Amino acid sequence: MGIGDRHQKKDIEAALRRAEACGLKVTHDKSRHTWGYVICCPCSDKFTVHCTPQSAGNEAKKINGFINKHRGCA
Ligand SMILES: [Zn+2]
User: Fold this and answer.
1) Which of 15, 20, 31, 61 has its CA at 20 to 30 Å from residue 70's CA atom?
2) Is 38 part of a structural domain of the chain?
3) Range of the domain at 32
4) Separation of 74 CA from ligand 1 center, angstroms?
5) 2 lies in a domain?
6) Centroid of ligand 1 to alpha carbon of 72 (angstroms)
7) Domains in the chain: how many in total?
8) How far does the centroid of ligand 1 lie from the alpha carbon of residue 60, in Å?
9) Is 53 left (phi over 0), alpha (psi -120 to 50) or beta?
10) Has residue 4 been placed in a domain?
11) pLDDT tens-digit readout, 24-60
């Protein structure tokens, strides 16, 4: 991700960094309700990251769950 592509919620930003470190692809989508996606290229599964989730902590946990599920795919 480039500069300016950071998520405004630091818990989520940290989870996105972790996803990248595990080899998952993080894309920033500029549409209104969606911040972007975490994508597992080998199995084409993706997780939708919201801009303003009701709970940033929960969203970060879900991203971590996605990482744990897919870190073995590559
Ligand atoms: Zn996968």
Assistant:
1) 31
2) yes
3) 10-70
4) 7
5) no
6) 7
7) 1
8) 18
9) beta
10) no
11) 999 998 876 799 999 999 999 999 999 989 999 999 9
pLDDT digits (tens, 9 = 90+) for 11-21: 999 999 999 99
> Which single residue is written with the structure tokens 């971590």?
64
- Identify residue 17 by its one-letter amino acid code: R
How many angstroms is it from 66 CA to the middle of ligand 1? 9
Q: How far is the CA of 67 from the centre of ligand 1 (A)?
A: 9
Ligand 1 center–CA 30 separation, angstroms: 24
Gap from CA of 19 to ligand 1 centroid (Å): 12
Please check whether residue 3 lies inside any domain of the structure: no
Give the CA diameter of the chain: 32
